[in-house]
Amino acid sequence: MSYQAEISRASPTAILMVVDQSTSMSQRLSGGQSKAAFLADVLNKTLYTIIASCSKADGVRDYFHVGVIAYSGEDARNGFQGALGEEPLHVVSRLAETPLRVETRTKKVAGPNGDVAEQSVRFPIWFEPHSRGKTAMCAGFDAAIEILQQWCAAHPSAFPPTVLHVTDGHPSDGNPEPMADRLKSLATRDGACLLFNLHVDTGDGEPLIFPNDERVIKDRFGKALFRMSSLLPPHAVEAAARKGYDVRPGARGFVYNAGIEAIADFFDIGTRPAVAADR
Amino acid sequence: MPYQAEISRDNPTCFLFVIDQSGSMDEITEAGRSKANFVADVLNKTLYTLVTSCSKSDGVRNYFDVGVLAYGGSDVTSGFGGVLSDGIVHPIHAISEHTLRVEERKKKVDDGAGGIIELTTKFPIWFDPKSAGGTPMRAALNKTKETVAEWCEAHPGSYPPTILHVTDGQSTDGAPEEMAEGLRQISTKDGPVLLFNLHVTTAGGGERVFPTTESDLGDDYSRMLFRMSSPLPGHLAKFASDKGYAIAEGSRGFIFNGDPQCVVDFFEIGTRPKLVADR
């Protein structure tokens, strides 16, 4: 059985986000923010949640190695800047110490009578939105393969890495499908790398969440993204079911035409490998 | 140059929605709702947007006369209920005052800090979905023709009426093409009536959006709907192209095999005349 390894400080896992920063990511979502800005918010919140889930009485435990690859124009690069920009993956405690800055955000919260109140919250930023240039998706996958090849060699018995890839368009630098296959062929003894794909849309169109049949997707590249996506492993099926999604046998880690809700849920579900050990 | 008339309280324009309520509209879309249901939501939202765009500090200004014709079984009737069911076309001010009811809908929005919050919003309903019986398209377009002819006679200097026709199937009461032709010959001094056709489907694939020639289309039925559709006037063509649609000289106001996103965009594009006067 794959995906059974305990995640612990001695045997951490890796989470790598691969983010499309092409020009089209500047289009506005129905909520008013650009796709790039909302995604950056969700990504920053996800990083914060990962840190929180590793925070114990004795400090932040390094259960995860986390990195962000951004691609646009002709190439891919580290999505972090500053001190974090020098290495592709970081232990969680290092992330916790090194946000770019901490913003004060006005957050809408539900009041007692179903009304909405506003609350000032501190919101750490690690990752900034950008959206410029073409969609160098193959370059993004190339970078991910290189990083995770090394990681898997160094952590042969760990829970395998999870890659969350976010895009809104068609690749401009070739066919990423063979590269996705290579990425998914990287493995530890506990199983193959997991690749989950999120396709973002601005519209009011209805998203397809964790489909199990590519025929429901019309777009040719949408079908390719489906094929590029790993089957949802049990922990993700469970997390999706808890959020109320009807996950059928053969469901892939793929969301098509995601609006804001599906984007937030995708990150939540995708970054939930069970931390079982040394609690 | 046609389609240049200023729209004002003295010279309103007219929107007429012609909605197929035949039995097949109860087919369920990918996202699990019936076509009839989805179209009704989009129509209600469009009516609300029209009301809002006429709302000024002194109240709702009558820039638009608006009507809904529903057809199914052997009937063509007003799609409005209550007092609005007398007569087909009503000034927007009367529409704003006579909703069937106001529902509370849950809507998920960006909470400002990378998350989602569910808000309750008011959703006014003017039009309820129905789906039963045959598809008397010919009768519906005949009724449309009468309604529009009368309106144009009373408003000879106005921006001409826009008809948004939504269907999912073939006419069951004879060929509708000559009715459409007759309809498109009606005009004001500012130009002929605009007839835009939207064909919706639950089967994925093969959508044709704002085509320029019949030869882009696969079968006789879609070709006929193409011929029944008016070319998009300049300002609407620009709006469609801003939304990311490929628009060329001669693009018609016609979508074949439209998915939910197409439905939303079709209504938005079709109800966007230039409001320039008495602001």
Summarize the structure in words.
The complex is a heterodimer of chains A (279) and B (279). Chain A has one domain (13-99, 130-270): von Willebrand factor, type A domain (Rossmann fold), CATH 3.40.50. Helix content of chain A is 29%, strand content 25%. Chain A contains seven helices and 14 strands. In chain A, strands 1, 4, 5, 6, 9, 12, 13 and 14 form an eight-stranded mixed beta sheet that branches. A two-stranded antiparallel ribbon of chain A has the order 2-3. In chain A, helix 1 runs parallel beside helix 7 (260-270), helix 3 packs parallel to helix 4 (177-185) and helix 6 (234-242) packs across helix 7. Chain A is globular and about 50 Å long. Chain A starts with 12 loop residues before the first strand and ends in a 9-residue tail after the last helix. Chain B is α/β, with parallel strands linked by helices and 279 residues long. Chain B is built from seven helices and 14 strands. Chain B has helices at residues 35-53, 92-97, 137-154, 177-185, 220-227, 234-242, 260-270, and strands at residues 13-20, 55-56, 59-60, 64-72, 75-78, 89-91, 101-110, 116-125, 162-167, 187-188, 191-192, 194-200, 208-209, 254-258. In chain B, the strands form four sheets. In chain B, strands 1, 4, 5, 6, 9, 12, 13 and 14 form an eight-stranded mixed beta sheet that branches. Chain B has a two-stranded antiparallel ribbon with strand order 2-3. A two-stranded antiparallel sheet of chain B has the order 7-8. In chain B, helix 3 runs parallel beside helix 4. The model of chain B has no long low-confidence stretch (mean pLDDT 91). Classes of the chains: A alpha/beta (279), B alpha/beta (279). The A-B interface holds A 27, 29, 31-33, 38, 41-46, 105-110, 114, 116, 121, 123, 201, 203-208, 215-218, 257, 260-261, 264 and B 29-31, 108-120, 204-207, 244, 259-261, 264-265.
